[in-house]
Amino acid sequence: MWGIDATAGFTLRDGQVPIFAMIDHGSARCLGIHVAKRGTRFEALEPLRQAVREQFGSFSEGTALGVKLRHDHGSLFHERRLPARDPLSRPRVFTGLRP
Description:
Blueprint: E1 2-11, E2 15-24, E3 29-35, H1 41-44, H2 46-56, E4 69-71, H3 91-95
Parallel strand pairs: 1-4
Antiparallel strand pairs: 1-2, 2-3
């Protein structure tokens, strides 16, 4: 089971910035991390893309089939808000991760 969440950090140049991370709950290993100037729903899912590429060698349809994903219920992680016409913008569904 993987978990994804967000926190905030502070930089002198940009002020407060969001930090997104994907953690493997079995090993407590960080599988992906991303810092952005703005905390958009697309930026929030970058660690998921990194984790799938690192663990499975590619980011393609059905790659992570069967892996469970835990997230809080923050709006950044709700894929129903993402465009349905572009499967790459809905990476959890695209790669086969389960909630």
